[in-house]
Structures are given as C-alpha cells and as structure tokens.
C-alpha cells in the first residue's frame, strides 16, 4: 500500500524532474520525447504556478507539446546562442532566416505539409521584399538549412526522409510535416518587456537558475540584499524546484547541480579545449596571485606566454591543430571562459573573474605538475 507520504515524495520528485527537463528543453514534444511530455503534463498545474511565481516564466502545455517561454537574459548574463550542427553559433543572418521561415510557415494558406523548395522560395521572396536578401546564394542556402534543422530539432518540422539534407546538397527536396500548434508559440515575445519592473526576488532567482556563476559585482543592491537576507529560503527553493545546491562566497553565488546532468556546458571536462582552459586559468591564478574576491586583469602578452608554455608541455597529447596554431587555442579558450562567465575581454588582454580562484591548484597538484615538467625536460636515456 502506498502511503500519503510516499505519494507526496513521488509527486515532488516527478515535479522536480519535469522542471529540470523544461530548463534543459524549453520545447518538449510528443513526437520527440513522449515520456518527458507525459511527465510535464502530469504536473502541469504545479509547474505553471512555480515557473510563474518563482521566475516569471510562462509555461504552455498542450496535448502534443510543452513550451516554456522565458525572459530575455540579463545584460550581464553569458550569451547562449543557437548552434549549427558543427558547433558554430548562429549569426545575425541565420537568426533572420529562422524568423523568416517561421513567418512563412505562419502565412495564410500554409497547411500542415510544405514543400521545402516552396518554403525556400517564400523565404527568398520575403527577404527581398524586406530589403534583407543576401548576395551569396550559397551562404543563404546554408543559413536556411541551419534554420530548418533548428526547427526539426525543436519538433516544429518533421523530416523522416532526409529531405533537408538532400536539399542542402542541391537536391530538389520534398514535403516536410509542420507541427502547427507548436509553431504559433515559437516566436513568442519574452515574458518581461524591456523596461518592465520585475520583482527583485524574481530577478535574483532567474540569475541563480540560469547563469553558470552570478558575480557579486553584477548584482544590484536590492539583489544583494535579497541574497543575504533570504539565503536559506533561496537554497530551499532551488533544491525543491530543480535539485540545485546554492553556494555563496565572497565573489558571488552559484547554484550547481550535484548530479552534473542539468548543465548544458560542463567545466572542467574532457577534451583538449577544456583541459587547456583549466590549466591556463590555474597557471595565471598561481602566477599572478589575485586579491580574494576581486577580478584579475592579465596582459595579453602574459596570456600568450602561458599558452605557449602549455602547448610546449602538452604537444604530444593535445590536438594537432591547437599545437600548430596557439592563437586559435587562445581564442577558443577565451570564448569558452566568457561563455562560462569566468572571464571577459578587455583592450589589454583577459580579465579573469573572481570565481576562477576556485580553480587554484592545490599543493599536490602543483607537485604533480612540477614532476611532469621535470620529466618532460629530462633527456631520454
């Protein structure tokens, strides 16, 4: 027999799992993830209330999809662009194509099925009429393909026959299925209009839920007061709503997922880029000794010197393209750190944010690094 307490605990766990799913996938469809949608629908009433009161977000739940409409990110929040298949972020032209595709699909007379060639022609015509048509047909096709693939990923378009891939390489295309009920919610405006007054507690909760790191310097006085005054309650809510653990330090705050499954960008992590980024900031912090709780400005020459040393030390194990082109490695490392909100560019080099101090190497790590360096420099017998 299931006890009332057991049922309540199961409901709380299911509601939290559904909320975590919506943070990772603001669009959930029956066609792509039926189990996740079933879970969201089961807890729809509680989720709508939680997202609205805690974050000021609007949750739309229908029989075939769920759509979480968020607010525009704070000015200090790290960017989260859409990505192409190869990991390249969308540019302005690709976002324009995405908007044009959605507008074309919403045009009067457009049905539940559409020829990809007809859709492309409509987009070209609309772009010309609006004065934003590109001059490079190959680039325009590439941007349109990226937009179509994004809509496929979200479940707005269904393409089980590889039609978009064929059209991308010059084929004639075929018919795509359109999920019209979801389409109407794709270009929903942010829930908070620019200049609107959002309560302090909502602004702070959004930052803690959405940002990798919330730096103290990026919080206004009201938000700082809220963080200190309601720290215990905030920690309880974050755990109850999303299974996140709140950590507050001198330099700011962090709501992290102990399971490591909720984040869309893990750090540290595997691969040359993340390993190099960790080694770089550890090296710079160790050498330049930042003031606790303060940012650390590093001249460009010092960054280049540190990267050159790391490349020399790890040449045999790192990707060859980074070894051949340290400048490329530097650009990708700094882009990663900016995305993680651990650094920002300035005119003279790189500014490491205060939270990077948590990656300062321990005594044992420094000893191990020294031993590796010695082994590297020792001539082979």
Reconstruct the topology from this structure.
Elements lengths: L3 H21 L2 E3 L4 H9 L1 H12 L2 E4 L3 E5 L22 H14 L7 E3 H15 L6 H18 L2 E2 L4 H6 L6 E4 L1 H4 L16 H11 L3 E2 L5 H9 L1 H12 L2 E5 L2 E5 L15 H17 L7 E4 H15 L5 H5 L1 H14 L3 E4 L2 E4 L10 H15 L4
Antiparallel strand pairs: 1-3, 2-3, 4-6, 5-6, 7-9, 8-9, 10-12, 11-12
Helix pairs in contact: 1-2, 4-5, 4-6, 9-10, 12-13, 12-15, 13-15
Topology pattern, helix = H, strand = E: HEHHEEHEHHEHEHHEHHEEHEHHHEEH
Give the overall form: globular
Mean pLDDT: 85
Strand content: 5-15%
The assigned structural class equals mainly alpha
Helix content: 40-55%
> How many DSSP helices?
16
How would you sum up the major sheet? 3 strands, antiparallel
* Uncertain runs: 376-381
- Work out the number of β strands: 12
N-end to C-end Cα span: 72 Å
In the sheet with the most strands, the strands line up as 1-3-2
* Cα-based radius of gyration, to the nearest Å: 24 Å
Provide keyphrases for this structure.
mainly alpha, 381 residues, globular, 52% helix, 16 helices, single chain, 3-stranded antiparallel β-sheet
Verbal overview:
The protein is mostly helical. The chain has 16 helices and twelve strands. It has helices at residues 4-24, 34-42, 44-55, 92-105, 116-130, 137-154, 163-168, 180-183, 200-210, 221-229, 231-242, 272-288, 300-314, 320-324, 326-339, 363-377, and strands spanning 27-29, 58-61, 65-69, 113-115, 157-158, 175-178, 214-215, 245-249, 252-256, 296-299, 343-346, 349-352. The strands form four sheets. The chain has a three-stranded antiparallel β-sheet with strand order 1-3-2. Strand 2 and strand 3 (65-69) form a beta hairpin. Helix 1 crosses helix 2 and helix 4 packs across helix 5 (116-130). The longest helix has 21 residues, at 4-24. The chain is globular and about 65 Å long. It starts with a helix and ends with a helix.
């Amino acid at each position: 027999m299931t006890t009332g307490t057991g049922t309540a605990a199961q409901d709380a766990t299911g509601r939290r799992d559904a909320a975590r799913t919506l943070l990772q996938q603001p669009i959930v469809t029956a066609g792509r993830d039926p189990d996740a949608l079933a879970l969201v629908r089961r807890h729809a009433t509680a989720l709508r209330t939680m997202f609205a009161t805690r974050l000021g977000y609007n949750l739309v739940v229908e029989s075939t999809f769920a759509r979480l409409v968020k607010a525009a990110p704070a000015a200090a929040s790290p960017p989260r662009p859409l990505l192409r298949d190869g990991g390249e972020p969308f540019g302005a032209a690709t976002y324009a194509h995405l908007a044009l595709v959605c507008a074309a699909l919403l045009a009067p007379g457009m049905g539940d099925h559409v020829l990809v060639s007809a859709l492309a022609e409509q987009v070209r015509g609309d772009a010309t009429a609006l004065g934003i048509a590109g001059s490079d047909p190959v680039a325009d096709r590439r941007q349109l393909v990226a937009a179509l693939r994004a809509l496929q990923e979200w479940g707005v378009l269904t393409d089980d026959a590889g039609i978009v891939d064929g059209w991308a390489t010059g084929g004639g295309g075929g018919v795509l299925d359109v999920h019209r009920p979801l389409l109407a919610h794709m270009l929903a405006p942010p829930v908070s209009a620019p200049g609107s007054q959002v309560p302090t507690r909502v602004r702070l909760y959004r930052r803690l839920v959405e940002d990798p790191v919330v730096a103290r310097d990026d919080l206004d006085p009201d938000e700082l007061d809220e963080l200190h005054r309601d720290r215990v309650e905030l920690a309880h809510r974050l755990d109850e709503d999303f299974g996140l653990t709140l950590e507050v330090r001198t330099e700011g705050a962090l709501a992290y997922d102990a399971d490591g499954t909720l984040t869309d960008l893990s750090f540290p992590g595997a691969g040359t880029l993340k390993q190099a980024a960790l080694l770089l900031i550890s090296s710079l912090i160790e050498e330049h000794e930042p003031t606790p709780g303060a940012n650390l400005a590093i001249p460009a020459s010092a960054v280049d010197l540190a990267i050159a040393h790391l490349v020399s030390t790890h040449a045999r194990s790192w990707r060859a393209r980074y070894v051949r082109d340290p400048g490329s490695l530097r650009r990708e490392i700094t882009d990663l750190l900016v995305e993680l909100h651990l650094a920002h560019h300035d005119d003279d080099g790189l500014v490491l944010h205060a939270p990077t101090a948590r990656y300062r190497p321990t005594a044992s790590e420094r000893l191990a690094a020294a031993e590796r360096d010695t082994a590297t420099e020792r001539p082979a017998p």
